Structure formats: C-alpha cells, structure tokens
Prior knowledge:
Blueprint: H1 11-16, E1 18-22, E2 25-29, H2 34-46, H3 48-52, H4 56-74, E3 75-79, H5 92-100, H6 105-116, H7 123-138
Antiparallel strand pairs: 1-2, 2-3
Amino acid sequence: MLCLDDIAIDPTLAEAGTWMDYMGGRFLIARKGAAYQTAQIALYNEHRDLMKSNTQESREKAIEIERRLFAEFVLLDWEVVDREKNPVPYTKEAGYKMVCDPRFGELVDRIEMYSMVHKNYQARVEEDVAEEVKSSAAS
C-alpha cells in the first residue's frame, strides 16, 4: 500500500534544485512547478494566435518556449568546463543554447528524467547524503 509521505517532496528543494552528477560535471536541477507553469501559460497566451494556427511555425514556437522554460526553471546552474578546462558560467542563454543543441540530447533527456524523480527532492535524501559524507570523512 502506498504511503503518500513516502513520495512527498520538499517544495524548497524542488524549487531550489538538487545537484545531479553526470560524466564529471554537475547540474543543479529543479522540478517543474508553479513558476514554470505560470510562465508557460503567459508565453502561450502571448503567442495565442500563432499557437492556435497549428502550423510548422507554431510547432517551432512551442518547442522554443519549452526549451527556454527548461533553461530558466529546470536547469538552474552547472559546473562544467570548456576544452581548456576553464569553468563555463551558467546563464539562461547558455543553458538554452545547450538544450537546443542536438549533440546534447542525451544530457537534456537525463536532466529531464532526474527532475521527475521524487526521491531527488526529498529532505531525507539530502540528510542521508550529509550523513554519508560525515561517515566517509570520519574514516
């Protein structure tokens, strides 16, 4: 039997994000929430006539909107470097460009999957990680 407390997320963690490690980099990932939905509705309403047209242009605009929202509300930060090992600062525009680049499709998929896993945003998970770090530091 499902206990709802077992799947409850910490809203603060969901909005602030948690770090996902990926191939030597780290990505701060939030869950889609009320702010995402509010922005999504506003952008769709801003382009209402185009969105209702059901044309190639409307489909492209819908994809652009979703990618921009992803770079603003889901992907919040990263710790990555360029080829010369210099840190690459995160900006919404840099995130948007990465999300749009088909070469990073697997990473974008991984980020999206991470954002949907409730365990990544449970307070007890963060506490468990802190305890593990303390235990390993003591040894």
